[in-house]
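Students often ask what a holo structure prediction actually looks like on paper. The answer is less mysterious than it sounds. You provide the chain, you provide the ligand, and the output is a string of C-alpha cells encoding the 3D arrangement of the protein together with 3,4-dihydroxyphenylalanine.
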Amino acid sequence: MIDDIRAARDAALAQVDAAESLESVTALDTRLLGKKGQLANLKKQLGTLASINEKKAAGQAVNEAMDAVGVALDTRRAVLGSAALDARVLAERIDLTEHVGRPTRGHAHLVTQAWERLEDVFVGLGFRVAEGPEVETDWHNFEALNMGEGHPARGEFDTLFVDYAPEGGESGHTLLRTHTSPVQIRTMLEQDPPIYIVAPGRVFRRDTPDATHMPVFHQIEGLVVDRNITMAHLAGTIEAFTKAFFGSGWSSRLRPSYFPFTEPSAEFDIQRPDGSWLELGGCGMVHPNVLRAGGIDPEQWSGFAFGFGIDRMAVMRHQVGDIRDMFTNDIRFLEQF
Ligand code: DAH
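The corresponding C-alpha cells follow.
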C-alpha cells in the first residue's frame, strides 16, 4: 500500500512539474487532489488494511503525499503566474527609444477640450465666463437656490460635507458644491444686471463610480438676467448653442420638468442629424426667490438659467461606453481624441 501511495505521489509530482499553463495547474489540482483522484482512492482503501499500525502508517503516507502535491501545485502556480506577468509586461512594454529625437506633442484632455469649446461658443454668443469656489457654503449651494433646509430636492444631491466650522459657527454648512448653480448666486451678488455668464467647473457628489457616474465631474452653468427676458430667449439660446457646438444638422427641444431654482423649468434634449434624441441638461426661468437671494428685484428683471454635464456631453458626443475611461488616463484612450 505504502509503495502504491509513493508511486501515485511521484506520478502526481511529475505531472505538476510538467504543467505549462495556469489553466493546466487548475485542472491538475482537481484531478490529483479531488475526490476521484488516485490518492483519494487509496485513502478510501485504508479501511481494507488488516492492522491498526498499517492503517496508521498508510494514512500518514497518504496525507503527506497530498500535502506534497498541494505544495507543488502552489509552487508551480506561482512560477507560471510570474512568467505570465513577465510576458504581459513585455508585450505591453513601450520602447521609449522609439520616441527619442522625435518628440510628439501632447494635447488637452477630452474634458478640457469640451470645456474650452463650450466657453468659445458661449463667448461667441455674448456670454462672459464666471467662476465660483469648489468648496461652497450650504447657503449658496442650496438655500439661495430656493432649496431651504429640509427641501426634498436636497435629497437628490448626494452631498459631501466638509469638516469645517467657521469661527463661532457650526460644521455641516460647508460642502463640496454639488452643481455649478451656486455661481449664479455669486455672480448676481457681484454684479448688477444685465448678466450674461457661463460658469464651467468641477462638481462633487457622493456617488460610487460606474459606467455613467463619477463622484467628481464637470458641469457648465448659464445665467442670463436682463429686462423682459422670456422663455423664448432661453429656447433660442439653447438652439443657437446646439447648432454652434454640435453642428448645423442638430437641433434642440425643451421638455417640462421641475427644478427648485427655476419656474417654469424644463429639461432640454438635442437631436442628432439621424433624428435620435439625447438628454442634455436642465434649464428654466430663474425663480423670483433666487433673483431676490442674489439681490435683484424680480419685478424689474427676469432671467433664464441652464446647466449640464460636460463629461456626459463628451461621452455622448464621442460614444464613449464608460465614463470612467475618461479618468483612468490610459494613453491608448486619450490618444483617440
Ligand atoms: N443644477 C442642476 C443639477 O445639477 C442642473 C440645472 C438645472 C441647472 C436647471 C440650471 C437649471 O441652471 O436651470 O442637476
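The two ends are 70 Å apart (CA to CA).
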